[in-house]
Amino acid sequence: MFAKLGRFTPLIVLLVCSQSSFAAEKIRVLLVDGQNNHNWRSTSPIIKASLETTGKFTVDVTSNLSEKEKDKPGSISPKIAFPPLLENYDVVVSNYNGASWPNSFNTDLESRLKEGKIGLVIIHAANNAFGGWKEYNQMIGMGWRDKGFGKRVKVDDQGQAEVIPKGQGDSTGHRYTGVFTVVVRDTEHPITKGMPKEWAHPRDELYDNLRGPAENLNILATSFSPGTKTHEPMIFTISYGKGRVFHTPLGHDAGAMGCAGFQATVERGTEWAATGKVSQKLPSDFPTEKVSLRK
Ligand SMILES: [Zn+2]
Q: Ligand 1 center to residue 253 CA distance, Å?
């Protein structure tokens, strides 16, 4: 009996070791929410579950609640106190649009991102935030801003991008809301590789006239807006120093985030922002010409 136990001991140790090293290989995601003119309480759990279902990520949620919300129960528990230490994470996913973050958190994010130590993911209204934070505008490339704020990029039927100078054209809006098609413009990028050239997305706000410095931008996919009669950037990346930023204006609400295409895009975009690679296969429920919703 004792001899048997003795023989099994090294095996048990080995299993514990391999399990912990497997856990260490997961990408550590920090999902930031707590203030948004959108329903972050219903959308953050969708983002968290979507990432975790891939088996590639661990997701901590931190909520920067406003004073009046501090007493309300949060949407996900346990939560990480805000502001958390960024050194514990490989990528920040922002589902946040609200009051400024502390200066020390901002400068830490700037330097860590610039050095390529962390990645950043921007979803929908997160691009409305922090108009006065110069470096944030560089990171996100373009956001929900006034036409006088910066450049706008639109894409023609052939996929050629055209830069509209600041002051010309319209300010950011969503001049169309409904079902629309996402058109992949870069079929070789790890995030979009293997996706159908065109795929259907359920009812969502189609952001148009995003504005900003628009530097070091790579547009991966667009959607035609009946509101502006042109193709608007829907999936794009930005280089910020050595850092990688993945940005999608898709995802207004829980219905839009139920799209298997949206979720797979964010799963891939988050891995890419953290590592520069995508190891995930395209899921079998990825939409084609038909909308595909996840429960
Ligand atoms: Zn919205």
A: 7
